[in-house]
Amino acid sequence: MKARLLKALQKSTADYAEIRVETEDSSVIAYRGREVETAGTSSVRGGIVRACTRGGWGMVTFDSLAQLGEQVKEACACAKLVGEEKTELAEVEPVDAEKPVTLEHDFRGVSLDDKLALLKAYNDIILGAAPSIESSSVGYGDSFRTVYFASTRGNYFMEQRPRVTCRFMAVARDGALVQRAYDGISSTTTYDAVLGMEDKVRETAERADALLRAPKCEGGTYSVILDPELAGVFVHEAFGHLSEADLVYENAQMRELMCLGREVGVAGLNVIDDGSLGNYTGTGAFDDEGTPTGETYLIRGGALAGHLHSLETAAKMGAKPTGNARAIGRSVPPICRMTNTYVTNGDIPVGELFAGVDRGVYACDAFGGQTALEMFTFSAGYGYRIENGQRGELLRDVTLTGNVFQTLKSIDGIGNDLVISKRGGGCGKGGQSPLPVSVGSPHLRIRDVVIGGG
Amino acid sequence: MRKPMIENSESRLRQGVERANSAGASAAKLSLGHSESTHCSFERGRLKETGSSESLSYNVEVLVDGRCGTSSGNRIEKLDEMIDRAIVLAKVGSTAHFNAYPPPGALTPVKTHSERTLGLARERMIESCGQMVEALREYDPDLFISATGSRNESEDITVTTGGVCHQASRTAWSLSSHVQRTKGTDILFAGYGRGWCDLNEFYAPSVIAGRVLVDLRNAEKTVEPPTGKVKAYIPPEQLPAFLMPFMAGINGRNVAKGDSPLAGRLGEQVLAKSITIVDHPHVDYASGACEIDSDGIPTRKQTLFENGVLRRFLYDLDTAGLAGAEPTGNSGCYPYWLLVTPGVRPSSELLADIDDGIYIKALIGYGQGNIINGDFSCNVGLGYRIHNGEITGRIKDTMIAGNLYDLFAENVELSSDLDHAGRMPHAVIEGLSVASRSA
């Protein structure tokens, strides 16, 4: 493949050109209620040529590898039509690497019958957990993706990116009231990660049942403690996206707003993105422009410390590429994205965080979150009342909203119990969703958060 | 477009169906699609990227001993392998609630392919985007302006063991512009876009930019939102989002699986009398236009809610078997192209009648909660305060919440004027709960 890609790139007439080819084999099995809802498999191959001339980009996607040279020429012609400025792409260390993966327990060797038996067992636990449980959804998916990349700079890499995921949901009903609870796990290293989840599955189903009896969280302004899962999602959604340099690099006002050194949070707040961290779903050796991944401080000591870059944004902002140009699949260009994003540990034991709250809400888990840069809305999976420093009754419908700059400054307590989620999230941006990412945080205490009520 | 590719595909798919049959499948369905598109995008007010894409994909569905297996791919040379894999999967697959794909039925013809759209050159799209950018830059040179245009042509073919062999071709264009205005930590997003199968008068760069300009003007000033229970003015482009729980409610799969609050309520008054909603897949050149569903069943025009009374659940082939109902020709049990019947008074009068309320242009975080039950709670991404019948400024950090089944049960007024495509009116609803940080 290397020789084939480099040969096709010889047709380039652009300042810079690259080819990315991907193959992906995936399968999915899902239960909904008593029955198997889906059993499917997919095998695809294809890629994209990107060319840059005088700062303008041309892109051509393809399914067949038969005409690669022609597609390089076409992308170069498109770029020539566009460019009127100067091509600025940061330099990185030359890359020539192959990163095959050996899975501890390869999901491709597990029989369909075994996978189905596992799902059925989880599904039975949910359906039998309480009389109120009306329906369930248990899904298994695996995917083995291989990325080949080469550029006119002579760079080449091949990286295998496997992933196995299991997610489950319980639906409980009492008359017109329906409550749901979710959980799941994701792994890039072994099929075994999806085994032995019986207790977690049972807890999830029992929570859906308990939420039927939980009161709604009344709308108002509260002191809120976020659990690590929700805090991680919050930092990813509300702050992380603002750090993506493609939102900033050509926008003078945004550059001013997000300039390095600006105080955005309390002194103890550090936020890091690290695509080279351990084996999480956002982990990889290279981004989709061939830049090695690494650790980037986004906030250090409460001040903005870095952005997440592609080759172009790094060059135009005078920064080093960070390995954050990621594409969701074979037919789309890479854009600035997060990998594994987390808040570092503070020094407050969780008990002390609670002790500082007379009347508040402990918000746990994330159903979802959306931001429009400065404004955000998050739905917690569930919550608890906090009274006089003690965790009280279970609450449902806990939705938090606010302005990210006000909220980061309102963090007044950072726990010392960092957890990086193994659940594996899917991030969306620019029509590319779900991109595998991970989030993490210790417990966070935030003052004056608006919680919406029905 | 390489038409021979699709033409040759028919015999290839027929062979595939035979292969599935001889390998033990009692029924099989193969479909293949091929598309080509070209696009351009402007960033920071100048042309940034242009390109083209081509893609091919196929889907296989087989029934073996009453169970269903599926596979998909994009390498035609692997089709036989993917058929075999679907057959293996079917052994553990979902229980099928049908025995056979139905024979061909009478189709209502609808136009989805336009020569005019094929003639839309990349140069013209670039020129149109440039025109929109100029109009917006003239209003405010500090805006961060984006614009995109695209043109697509696709062909699909479906072959089933029921004897259906259906080919469809489609063209489509889209054109949109977006702005971001940043002042300190105050950020505004506004945008508007259109798309259609035929290159008709909807392709209007100045109108599209004009819609964004209206939002920019309305949002020049930020004002305090009203709080408590207020009236909300919902424009046509936002109305489908508010109708989402009702569409999930009439989805036959949700009904049959016990997830829909509308189960067992056909014939009941569910929504306000002012609301009639029709699914109409036969509007020529509409984005949702479609003659046949993915199982080979003819699509049909259907009234879903008539004067607020629930009239119809939507069923695909499998779900109809599960529910003991007739299939309605709706793939995935989803509607194709919703039309909401207009009201009596023009939207200008509806707006003028609001003493204190909010105008909702965009939401953040909508649909995260228990939306199938109608519950929602989210932030207003772009919205205005309406005071004494006039828009007084932008509202920010404003949370709205409620239950859409309650909010749409009575006191809903729809405008007599519809959007450019003749689909959606403006709506005014009452009793929306609004909270804000400053309150």
Outline the secondary-structure elements.
The complex is a heterodimer of chains A (454) and B (439).
Chain A: H1 2-9, E1 16-32, E2 35-53, E3 56-62, H2 68-82, E4 96-99, H3 112-127, E5 133-151, E6 156-174, E7 177-187, H4 198-213, E8 220-226, H5 228-239, H6 252-257, E9 271-274, E10 295-300, E11 303-304, H7 311-316, E12 325-326, E13 335-336, E14 340-343, H8 350-355, E15 359-372, E16 375-387, E17 390-395, E18 399-403, H9 404-409, E19 411-414, E20 419-420, E21 425-429, E22 432-441, E23 444-452
Parallel strand pairs in A: 4-6, 8-15, 14-22
Antiparallel strand pairs in A: 1-2, 1-5, 2-3, 5-6, 6-7, 8-23, 9-10, 9-14, 10-11, 12-13, 15-16, 16-17, 16-18, 18-23, 19-23, 20-22, 21-22
Helix pairs in contact in A: 1-2, 3-4
Chain B: H1 3-22, E1 27-43, E2 46-64, E3 67-73, H2 79-90, E4 94-95, H3 115-118, H4 122-139, E5 144-160, E6 165-183, E7 186-196, H5 205-218, E8 228-234, H6 239-250, H7 252-256, E9 277-279, E10 302-306, E11 309-310, H8 317-323, E12 338-340, H9 347-352, E13 356-364, E14 375-387, E15 390-394, E16 398-403, H10 404-407, E17 413-418, E18 425-436
